[in-house]
Amino acid sequence: MSGVWVFNNNGVIRLVENPGAEMHGGGRRKVLIHTPSNEVITSYADLETKLYSLGWERYYDDPGLLQFHKRSTVHLISLPKDFQRLKSMHMYDIVVKNRNVFEVRDM
């Protein structure tokens, strides 16, 4: 993972990526893996199925985003509508909120 985790004044964490480091690393792209099945997530349909099985529900507050909320937590996963625009920071957000279920790997 190239980048730095940064906390803002509200205690929100985000990953600030270093695009130069990715270029020196051979330009490998990141993929989201569902670890129990060792399956690469290739679409939102795949991701949605896995998240539903973990208790996540769709949240329809912002029409410009695909969002999931888990009732038992305060967590909200916000993703771009277009799967092709999914970046490693979105993948790591999913990983942090679903420990031991997803991981990000270089492809």
Automatic annotation (TrEMBL):
Source organism superkingdom: Eukaryota
GO BP term, pick one: regulation of flower development
Family that this chain belongs to: Belongs to the FPF1 family.
PANTHER family, per database record: FLOWERING-PROMOTING FACTOR 1-LIKE PROTEIN 1
Protein name: Flowering-promoting factor 1-like protein 3
Organism: Trapa incisa
